[in-house]
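Figure 2 data, in text form.
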Amino acid sequence: MDIQKNVSYFKLRLQELLNTSFPEKAYNNKFINQRSQWAFNAYEGALSGGNPQEECEKIADSILFEGLYFSKFDCIFKVVSYEFDTMMADEELRPFALNMLNICEPVFFKYEISDDFLYTTDYDLLYDELSEFISCWIKNDNVENS
């Protein structure tokens, strides 16, 4: 059964991803509205051009999620969850990672981040560097100050 696609459909899908993996963009209504409209227009255009449903969805998704395949927040959250989980309760991990997003920005600045960055050898270096950076930050500023 096919779901009728409209702008709201694409907006909800994008909002879900932003809430989960790109919290720094989650309240950027201009970005969300524009990207959703573009995806909807591409979907409708591909559909009216006679493309199969699945292909139309792929085209729309490529526009909807462009530049949103590597998440700095997800990377930080992974580091915090794996390396510092014994220092915090589970419910504190996400808020701590959110706080670290801006604090860790200088670490990310050193790397050329792309959608496929997760699959590069530099990702492992970034992971280690973030782990060290967060460890130093905790030692210097204490978790309670976050």
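Caption note: The radius of gyration is 18 Å.
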